[in-house]
Write a structure and sequence with these properties.
Length: 147
């Protein structure tokens, strides 16, 4: 690829390196999906795509290690009831969950995760091919396995 570099400047970088360094007023440069520089702001003389981070925080994407993404239509349902899984969720899943609901639920859940800074998720539910399809359409990495 012969694409331009992208420079993100004026950001507070949470490096997550061994020392958990924080770089204030930092800069990240990447090209062709590879990070080529992380550090203090410096001069650059090439034609770049420039993003002003406006003093925001820049950090690695988060990983959600345990999801049942397509259960989102049942979120908060009967949360205040004892034995809610057996009394409410399992019967509703048996009656309502199909490929379409799984796909729609996954698209909603993946969109929500992306908005929150999650870049990868691990999912276990039904019709995981539909979850994978939704994740691929939204450019999200996922590890999916069917129950």
């Amino acid at each position: 690829m012969n694409s331009k570099s992208t420079v993100i400047k004026n950001v507070n970088i949470l490096t997550m390196n061994q020392n958990k360094d924080i770089i204030e007023n930092g800069m990240v440069i990447y090209k062709d999906d590879k990070i080529v520089y992380v550090g203090c702001e410096k001069e650059f003389d090439e034609d770049v795509n420039l993003i002003d981070g406006e003093d925001a925080i820049l950090m690695p994407g988060m990983i959600n290690c345990h999801t049942h993404a397509s259960m989102i239509p049942f979120r908060s349902l009967a949360d205040d009831y004892k034995d809610r899984l057996k009394r409410y969720l399992f019967p509703l899943e048996q009656k309502l969950v199909d490929k379409e609901l799984t796909y729609i639920g996954a698209k909603y859940a993946v969109s929500e995760m992306l908005l929150g800074g999650v870049t990868t998720f691990c999912d276990m539910y039904y019709f995981e091919d539909e979850v994978a399809k939704a994740a691929k359409e939204l450019n999200m990495r996922g590890i999916v396995c069917e129950t």
